[in-house]
Amino acid sequence: MARAILALNTLYPLGLEALEKEFELIKLSRESDPENAIQQHRNDIVAIIAGPGNHVSRKLIEALPALEMIGIFAVGTDNVDLEAARERSILVTNTPDILTADTADIALALLLAVTRRVVEGDAYIRIGKWLNGPMPLGVSLAGKTVGIVGLGRIGQAIAKRLTAFDMRVVYHGRSKKDVPYKFYPQLLEMAQDIDFLVLSCAGGTETKGLVGEAVLKLLGVNGFLINVARGSVVDEEALLVALRNKDIAGAGLDVFANEPFVPEALYSMDNVVLLPHTGSATTETRSKMAALVIENIRAHFEGKPLKTLVAV
Ligand code: 8YV
User: Fold this and answer.
1) Does the Cβ of 231 fall within 6 Å of ligand 1?
2) Ligand 1 near 73 CB (within 6 A)
3) Consecutive 10-residue runs of the chain (312 residues): their mean pLDDT?
4) Is residue 31 among the annotated active site residues?
5) CB 90 within 8 A of CB 69
6) In 23, 135, 142, 214, which residue has its Cα 20 to 30 A from 89's Cα atom?
């Protein structure tokens, strides 16, 4: 039996070539009839490679009787039905740690960009507006309070950077941690005490719609929201209303509910900065992430221990 890998993601920039000698690769983006390609190879597919945009559903897992492992090209695992994987003892791996610094940097980039009007300022020069006078003023960061939702590895790296900017950090999450920042068991309470809300928690059912109308109202007219977690954590409709009505001052968003589709209403708002899910998008980090996905797959099929197994 040929061993096949169903590649829902191409592991850019490294590519899948390293696996080509050992496995048949089914690159779904290249298939004219993806459903048919899966059906044809269903008994041979031993591994799936998937990025955050690729939903590895119970239906897909159950359709593949030889499936042994799922290699996620991300730290987040919300795109995989982990329960369906557990029931079949299918191993799941992800890419933690190596993307922490870059993702934390993007949170800071968004915070700076939206408060100091960086994108707006760039356009101001390019379209010749500076010649007619100065642009509107921005908002200071030093001395302000930031509430982080999800103080995991990425959240802590964001906190470290914020501290260097002379900001006060507080946080909300599932549990209190051994850190020098104030913990809020209730998000609503934290929202009314902060200037900026930064989301760096896991996606999935537990955090779905966590930030809705009530949180945004408490964040307030001078508050900014930064999301480098998952679009699902925010009630996108409520956010659009809050931004339109100026219930909050602005937002920096790297993630959206239905990527790559972004609500068009956001395009024309100058109090938002938008990025196409680029938290880990550097050549260095994406190369390391791709290498780790490949390393885990190889290790499994050579009977060696996996480097970054997700507890399912
Ligand atoms: C993705 C991410 O890995 O790690 C995550 O959970 O969301 C990103 O870093 C990246 O978009 C690659 O597809």
Assistant:
1) no
2) yes
3) 92 95 93 92 97 95 98 98 98 98 98 98 97 97 98 98 98 97 98 98 97 98 98 98 98 97 96 98 98 98 97 86
4) no
5) yes
6) 23
96 lines ligand 1 (CB under 6 A): no
Assess whether the region 4-96+284-301 and the region 100-274 belong to the same CATH fold. yes
CATH number of 100-274: 3.40.50.720
CATH 3.90.550.10, domain 4-96+284-301, yes or no:
no
Give domain limits for the chain: 4-96+284-301, 100-274
**Complete edge-to-edge strand list for the sheet that includes strand 4-7:** 24-27, 4-7, 45-50, 69-72, 91-93
Question: How far apart, in whole angstroms, are the C-alpha atoms of residue 200 and residue 161?
Answer: 14
Alpha carbon of 31 to those of 8, 27, 112, 136: distances in Å?
A: 11, 7, 42, 50
In 3D space, the residue among 110, 104, 100, 172 whose CA is nearest the CA of residue 141 turns out to be: 110
Residue of 117, 172, 236, 277 with catalytic role: 277
pTM of this structure: 0.96
| Short-list 18, 46, 21, 103, CA closest to 282 | 103
For atom 4 of ligand 1, the residue with the nearest CA is 74
Cα of first residue to Cα of last residue in the chain, in angstroms, is 28
